[in-house]
Amino acid sequence: MAQDHRPPIESGCPDGFQYMHPVMRKNYGDWDYHEHPRPGVLLHVAKNGDQIWTVRAGTQRILDVFTLRTLCDIGDKFADGYVRFTIRSNIEYMVSDEAKVQPMIDALEAEGFVVGGTKNSVAMISHTQGWLHCDIPGTDASGVVKAMMDELIDEFKENNMPNRVHMTTSCCQINCGGQGDIAINVQHTKPPKINHDLVSNVCERPSVVARCPVAAIRPALVNGKPSLEVDEKKCICCGACFPPCPPMQINDAEYSKLAIWVGGNHSNARGKPTFQKLVAAGIPNNPPRWPEATAIVKRILTAYKDDARDWERINDWVERVGWPRFFELTGLPFTKFHIDNWRGARRSLNSSTHIRF
Amino acid sequence: MADQHHDTPMLDELENGPWPSFISGFKRLRDKHEDKRISGMANDLLGQLEHSYETRKGYWKGGTVSVFGYGSGIIPRFSEVGDSFPESREFHTLRVQPPAGNYYTTDMLRQLGDSWEKWGSGLVTFHGQTGNIMFIGTSTDNTQHFFDEINEYGWDLGGAGPCVRTGMSCVGAARCEMSGLDEMKIHRTLLNNFTDDVHRPALPYKFKFKVSGCGNDCMNAIERSDFAIIGTWRDDMKVDQEEVKKFVARKGREYVIDNVITRCPTKALSLKDDDTMDVDNRNCVRCMHCMNVMVKALSPGDDKGATILIGGKRTLKIGDLMGTVVVPFMKLDTEEDYEKLTEMAEETIDFWAENGLEHERCGEMVERIGLVNFLEGVGIEVDPNMVNEPRQSSYVRMDGWDEEAEKWFTRKAEEKAAAS
């Protein structure tokens, strides 16, 4: 059989210019400014006066070929056949003729897509695979996102927020969804359950021991078989041992919970980039619509919308009003778990008399 | 088929509500696709997913699947409950590198869709969190067939496992006035220099390049990449005073003071009595805020280049790390500039490949050995832009101070001579 194998062409990353709208190709590096005529639409103007209109739409992200073709049909009929995708998996159509913009919006909405996600909106939630495809998931990111976007759709379509809100979801603490203004992540609360019959056959034990951030795993003989044991007092239930050793099952129908983190901000605008901070945990992982998580997200968004100033991202807002006010305004409990005890934690403690009343 | 569908009462709930439903898409494949391979696969996929929803557990296991000649680029998935859901028993994902900037023609999307329909499940995502096109769900045999077909017309696999991963770059110069870089060229120059390291995992862990054209960092490069290239400029920002006046007239002085002047992190802006704006360019840190607000009036300068940061990553294993500045500014105009960038990336990856522990990201290695050891290892001189502040702890050996101070003075003298 081996002689039938075709050697790969190692072409790597393709050149984007061949798929780029001609007006963008022509004005590459020569853009002057942009305007935001309405939510979901951007107008970019080049130094020579050329214009390109962009229409952004949210989709279900996991596209079946029928939906992909519908999106292409809209691009052929109402745009110039050029598209791109944003980092948050929205589709963008580019056209040089303003007259094509409204018919395209109408066509997208008629097919159930959602035009919006620009500027100070709640943007599409970025997420990964979950139960659909991942080998270690604690939840189903696609389902959480669908259920949440159903409730937040008006905020996606309008610009009512003080600044943009980037949300993410992740199905384990690896946090593939990434940092977010609001992040909804699985947080396990019990140590892994070990199937000792399988460990020695499936797991490379020294590398599993090395993977633990708190050195809670050690080799052991269990029922006469080489296995691993966990010091459950030390274990922080992070799940890092599960990917290299599937018999150390960390996911649990009851004890794998959701936690919510806020204030992650990738941008250097105003302040330096920030990581997200824990605000709520112990939230049930409750398919198919996760109402408890959505309710807390909406409380946070309401407080932010009411209290933050224009252009403040969530981290900017909390930095100005302080964390005690955040917990007061959102009605979320502040617990001992909010006080960090990981390495470098002392920099998160207040060593001053700066107290708000 | 109709009467053999798995019941999916929980997933059906995700067909309600106004946001587009991925479940409805799966059902379209199940109910309307003529190819029994695809409709059967969609049915069993829905069945397994419903089982996950009921039990709150995942049922996919990894394994080893690749295409001939590569060791990477496929995410193998074998079902643990395949006897109940046999037609989606093997459900591997191919990670395919998108064009830099994520541009497509509808013709190309259709062609990719047709190939995927021939060999795969018909489910695709643009894009996964690392930046790949995710062709989700095919059998071990068809993985090779699909790759062979799309590889013939210009598409190649991305990374998976301990290797250089698929890169990401923002829309940048193609459609953004903030851009300080040729993002697409940087992206392709770096990634395609490391094609071998993308396809054959032999590094301590993953290594990601991300390119953002300005400090807004739309690609999350500082937080999420081992090697972040961010656009900036070092001459004065541009102020169109007529546009400033128009903006003040339209929005009012209070708005401008509250939303622009007082938001500058280094207090480098002032609004004059005649409604023009003064900029203290020596103290501007290129944060982008004022330009984001006053898009037409304020823009980046002309002497553009890149800031490079090393070592961003998420929690596991030692806690979150942002990238750290290792090059405050470098020009990226000439081919020599690009060679310098590529060499720096090679030095970084080589040093980390030799010194990183198994499953240790580059940033974690820097944390373990200290930034100075890393800089000396890759041949980069220290610079005060690399720190927020000098050390506070006196617990350090400082013999050799005079030589180090001399290095600084010599370097500064050389820079001065080169500039004059």
List its traits.
heterodimer, A: alpha+beta, Alpha-Beta Plaits, Sulfite Reductase Hemoprotein, domain 1, 3 domains, six-stranded antiparallel beta sheet, 9 helices, 26% helix, B: 420 residues, alpha+beta, five-stranded mixed beta sheet, 16 strands
CATH architecture of the largest domain in chain A: 2-Layer Sandwich
Write down the CATH class of the largest domain in chain A. Alpha Beta
Total strands of chain B: the figure is 16
The stretches of 5 or more residues of chain A where confidence is low (pLDDT under 50) are none
| CATH fold type of the largest domain in chain B | Alpha-Beta Plaits
Please write out the topology:
The complex is a heterodimer of chains A (357) and B (420).
Chain A lengths: L21 H5 L4 E8 L2 E6 L4 E8 L3 E3 H14 L3 E4 L5 E5 L5 H10 L3 E2 L25 H17 L9 E4 L11 E7 L4 E2 L1 H7 L2 H7 L5 E6 L2 E6 L17 E2 L6 E7 L14 E7 L7 H17 L6 H8 L1 H8 L27
Helix pairs in contact in A: 2-3, 4-7
Chain B lengths: L8 H4 L9 H11 L3 H20 L4 E2 L12 E2 L2 E2 L13 E4 L6 E3 H14 L3 E4 L6 E4 L3 H13 L15 E2 L13 H11 L1 H5 L9 E4 L8 H4 L2 E7 L4 E2 L1 H11 L1 H7 L9 E3 L5 E3 L9 H5 L4 E2 L4 E7 L13 E7 L4 H21 L6 H8 L1 H8 L22 H19 L1
Parallel strand pairs in B: 8-9, 9-10
Antiparallel strand pairs in B: 1-3, 2-4, 4-7, 6-7, 10-15, 11-14, 12-13, 15-16
Helix pairs in contact in B: 2-3, 4-5, 6-12, 9-10
